[in-house]
Amino acid sequence: MTTPDRSYTERLTLFHEEEVTGVAYFAALAAMQPEGARRTALGLLAEVERRTAVVTAPLLARHGLTPRAAATLARIGRDQARAQGGDWQALLAEMLETYGGFIAAFRALEAHAPREDRPRLEVMTAHEVAALDFARRARAGRPDATAPLRAFLSDSAALVDDAGGDAEP
Q1: How far apart are CA 15 and CA 112, in angstroms?
Q2: How far is CA 70 from the centre of its chain?
Q3: Is 40 exposed, middle or buried (0-12, 13-18, 19+ CB in 10 A)?
Q4: Which residue of 34, 85, 90, 125 has the lowest C-beta tally within 10 Å?
Q5: What is the domain-level CATH number for residue 75?
Q6: 48-62, pLDDT tens digit by residue?
Q7: Domain containing residue 122
Q8: Are 109 and 16 contacting, i.e. CB atoms less than 8 angstroms apart?
Q9: Residue range 112-167, pLDDT digits in tens
């Protein structure tokens, strides 16, 4: 196994923490929506974040990294959701504006990673690609907007099983 440098491990820990925070963020936003397509989509986004955290958790264990407590990260996510206020159009605009940058950051992490970490990091990148594709479709009013999220969840199932099941991150 290749020993990664500090820059890699710090970014890996931060990105994993952001996934755990994202679970609470999207779940809280879902709770702000009435029943329907938006609530379903936000629930799927929360599940995509949770799945990504589960898939990447073994990397932290492999490198002896300790993220902040899940309860702390969940509180941060809920606070961010309250600050966002549940505005659907503002959420889509933010996703469209920022998620491309996250994709670039995840790809840079992949390029810097030890070879054995890359398959799980590719899932991290894929989740962001799926979320951005969702945002584009949702903004356009497409009825298949959640298809990229559902495809990601289907495609990443094997790595979740390999990570020890659907346990919390």
Answers
A1: 14
A2: 14
A3: middle
A4: 34
A5: 1.20.1260
A6: 999 999 999 999 999
A7: 6-161
A8: no
A9: 999 999 999 999 999 999 999 999 999 999 999 999 999 999 998 887 755 554 44
